[in-house]
Every structure is written in structure tokens, then in C-alpha cells.
Design a protein that fits this description.
It contains 11 helices and 11 strands. By secondary structure, the protein is α+β, with helices and mostly antiparallel strands. The chain folds into 4 domains: 60 residues, Arc Repressor Mutant, subunit A; 52 residues; 76 residues, SH3 type barrels, CATH 2.30.30; 86 residues, Alpha-Beta Plaits, CATH 3.30.70. The strands form 3 sheets. The chain has a 5-stranded antiparallel β-sheet with strand order 6-5-4-3-7. A 4-stranded antiparallel β-sheet has the order 9-10-8-11.
Amino acid sequence: MPRPTGRVLTLLELLQSGGTRTVAELAERLGVQGRTVRRYVDQLIDLDVPVESVRGRYGGYRLAPGYRLPPLMLNDDEALAVLLGLVAGRRTGLAAAERTAGETAAAKIRRVLPKHVARRLDTLMEALAFTDRPGEFDTPDAEVLLTVADAVRHHRPLSIRYTGRDGRRSDRTLHAYGIVAHAGRWYVTGRDARLGEDRTFRLDRIADARPLPGSFEAPEGPDPAQRVLSAFATADYRHEVTVRIHGTVEQIRAHLPAAVAILEEEGEEETAECWRRVELRVERLDWLPAVLAALDRPFVIDRPAELRDLVLALAERLTSHARRA
């Protein structure tokens, strides 16, 4: 005997074939009683499928005019994958739509899961933990995200209204190269047509995005993700730091990733241990001594002198603690 979920999907297929279906006809096709058909119809309505009730001698049920939705057929593993994706996206700030949209989508899928799959999911969610809090990051407006994505694909200029870090709003014309998700936020990188310079914008700070006539030529060179990382590394901050570190690229990048530091290789191969110049722009220096110590590689601080003092102070504290032990 088919499972109830399968019969609900069969009911949807019957209604999608067009016309009005009587309760008796549907009950015969599904092999159930009339009250069960009404229960299945209620389940479809709960899933936002617009099933209309038609009264009269030849009444029954039909779909709203112009509506057609192919049934979503997922096996157990696929259903779990979709639900976990919705949950993880919401918890890590990568859900582009409003949080309620993700929650209702997950609820709709879960509602038609077989009981044994639902139990497996509940067990997993009880055992699952996240290191960040849900809603910690602002998410972009879904319409803005889709509009920017269309502009990227078709190389169309965009008019955007943007709120900067200082709270000031500005209207800009953007030639968008690509959309990048990084560290729980969404960014768009492209050329500010008025300034004639490449810029990176947080999508959640764009209040409005409208396509403009015309097109532009996408530049060659770094891909959008690399452009975003480079923008972070070269952003204006209070301190400019230059350090020479003896090690491989992998050893240095493990503690100073591309989003934080620019690495100028003085050796020819990434795997070679040699002196490499590292440049950073940071708002504060107090976190850098611990990072340099964690590298466990020889280093020389070229600038600023204040960083040398902080490293020496950390070394003295560590030496003092070791002696007490």
C-alpha cells in the first residue's frame, strides 16, 4: 500500500491534470475514503498549494487557475540534505531570504517526511551544535541579491543606494563583477563608475538596486573572490604593518590569511622556506603579537615600532609566567 506522503503527491498530480475532480473520483483513484481525501487536501493547503473547493452537484476540488507545481520527489538522504542546508544557512548567516522564509520552507518539507526520516532528523538536530549564534549576521534583501546576480550575468550597470560604515547614504552606479559569500556575509565586487575605481560593497547595506540601460565589459584578472579578499587586506585602517617572516606560504597563511595580509614572496616556490614580506593594515595591534608567536617562525618587524614593543612585552610576560611555574 502506498505511504500517505505518496498518496498526497498523487492527489496533487491528479489535480494538476486540470478540471474539477469530485471527492468520489479522487477517493477511488487513491484507494481511500472521502474523509481521507479531505485530509490530504488540507495537507496540500498547509503546504500553500492553492486547492479550491467547488460546491454543487458536480463539485469537488481543483487547483487555482494558472497554478502548476511539479511534485518534489526526494529520497531520505536528499530530504535530509535540503533541510540541513536550510538550517545551516540560517545559523551561519548565509540565508539570503528572510529568516521566516527558510523556516517555513523547512517546515513544509519536514511535514511530509516519513516518520523514520523525521526521527533521524530530530536526533541529528539534538546532537548538532554551532559555534555562532543564529541571526548574528545581517542578511541581504532577496530582491537585491537576485537583481545584482542578474546584472553580473548580463554585464548590466546597476544603480544602488548604499549605506557606508559611517552611516552615510549614497547613490552609486556599479559595474558588478561578482557576488562573494565570506565569513557569514554577502558582498558584491565591481567598479564604481563615478569614481572609476574597484570597490567592494556589503549586500545587506544596499537598500535598492535597479538595472540601468547599456552594458559593460568584465575585466580580466583576479576572480571576484580574490578581489574581495584583496579589498579587505588593503582597506584603510589606523596602522600599517610590515613584517618579514621566514617560512613557506602555507605556514604563513595558516595564521595570516589573504583576507588579513598581503604576502610578497621573496622566494620562487611556495613550498620553499625563505624570507617573505607580509603587509597588513589593522585598526588595532594588540592581537598581532600572539599571532606572530603562534607562527613559530623567525620574523623581523619593520614597522611600526609600537608593534615591536608589544611583542617584547608579551615575551616578558610569558617568561615571567614560566619562571613562576
